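This follows on from our talk about sequence and fold. Go ahead and set the record down below:
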Amino acid sequence: MARALLITNPAAARTQPRAVDTIMRVFRGAGWTAEVLATGGPGDARRLAEYGVKDGVDVVAVFGGDGTTMQAAAALVGTDVALGVIPGGTGNLLAGNLRLPASPERAARALLAGKPRPFDLGRMERPGGPQYFAVACGAGYDARVMAGTLSEHKRRWGMAAYVATTLRLITDIRSTTHLITIDGVEYDAEAAMVLVANCGEVIPPLIRLRAGIRPDDGLLDVVVMRANSFGQSVRAVWALLRDAPTAEGQETFVGYAQGREIRVETDPVQPVQLDGEPGGETPFAVSVVPGAIRILVP
């Protein structure tokens, strides 16, 4: 019989009390001993997950968005406590990459049948301490879109809110100077966006970065996109979606690399995001933590 702690974020887009009751009913109906605790402010998810670890639970399940999920995951790094993901936010990027059902009830049932699987995390060193990401972090255009999308719009329109912000800002897209260091080797790049990816899909299942990006290979994938106009941004996104080799003589808008330790410096300073959450500004340094946590996967 498993013991579980369910952490909920009442401020997330789809975490209504009725859905929480349904999840608890599913857990208890399967014989799980479950406790539910709600976050009330920044940092609560990590503190609640730490409580669950000390209390000896087998599973910390999170019903919220990617930000809440990653706060809890940070407390599970290096432990045997499994993370259960129940999508309740706007983007739900991790749940999408794991192919978890959007329905809270179905997602809870999927966790019951799931098996814990080792999962890499990216670790970003910040002034306030390390932060972790499961899907991707990045600097530039994507971070501007995340920061420019209002919370009330996300609650009202879901992913469509990000699409609207993307279209609103796309005419201002410009490449800037980047110095990217990958495992000690420096590269100069003119880029509008630099992504450091742990998973292959940034908007599951619509936008896949490229085949072969996996969260269990001990590597992070660097995706560099160059664009200086609306037309170039469309061509860059098309190149990203096609994931096809650039023909000889054809202009290149997207580049790829892999590594274990990545540092990104920019001129001028650019905003940073981690799994869709604000992450300060450049420069930033990230490293992969192989098998950092165990996630229940259907």
Summary: The mean pLDDT is 88. The longest strand covers residues 284-297. Residues 3-113 form a domain with the Rossmann fold fold (CATH 3.40.50.10330).
